[in-house]
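Most newcomers find our protein records easier to grasp once they have seen one. The structure tokens are whole numbers drawn from a learned vocabulary of backbone shapes. The record below serves as our worked example for the rest of this section.
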Amino acid sequence: MATLGLSAADKEAVEAFRRDIVEPSMTQLVIVYFTAEWCGPCKALGPIIDKVAAEYATKGVRLAKLDVDKSQFIAAQFQVRSVPTVYAMFQGQLVADLGQARTESALKANLDQILRQLPVGGEEQAVEAELEPLIAMGEEVLGEGDAERALSLFDQLAEMAPEHPAVAGGRARALVALGRVDEAEAALAGLPEEAEKAPEVARARAALALAREAAPVDDLAGLKAQVAANPDDPELRYELAGGLMASGERDAAADLLLDMIRADRDWNEGAARQRLLKLFEVVGLEDPWVSQQRRRLSAILFG
């Protein structure tokens, strides 16, 4: 914004705009809210914007209010023709018009979408950057079968971010792997609604459900021998698949369940397919192993 030829008051307004809005927008997402004391709709929208901005402050969101009567020059530069007018600014540029987001849920949805697309810096983003490699380490250790060490790692992470979905989900899955199913269920019970919707928590709940359904088999070798002697008994094969899953033998479990589906996909209302899908969810739907097994399942179902 050029200041040549401006009045002292306008120059002061431009300087305040640069200091309070443009400069913070270099790292934060600034909600620029044009309002007026005489504006009826502003009285309804104002408290919503205040509430959401406060909730999103740790995500790097900052609120800047401009009264159009007191900031006429700035409002003119933005071609504000009516109030309320609401924009989102990042790195000195307008990145979104939030004027149609007149409810709390709509405003949050808009902000969530913007924050996913831009490198906004906030406390939560800083914590996330710190946690990401540590969570990956915990997942790697858990994937290698060392549930005790994985639990120790996730316990340490839980001290930093107890409600983080990936931390809570990983910790619960480590507890399940150790056979501490009740503790895993209790760990997931107190999560906030937002965390409950996360795929990491859904994966942990799938592991929990699978652990309750597919209990470990005391004599897995004996059960394998029974299945070998009675290869056409679906009940025995289904029990063995559960035992294999509980012992971490996912390849053998998947092979057995796929064979069952190939032989009779409708047995027990599709129980073998449902158990296989639960196994996919526990392993992780983005995992290359799951993609490979999905292709095998599709070949059986649609080949």
Remarks:
- The first helix runs from residue 8 to 22.
- The CA atoms of residues 52 and 108 lie 7 Å apart.
- The mean pLDDT is 92.
- The chain is about 65% helix and 10% strand.
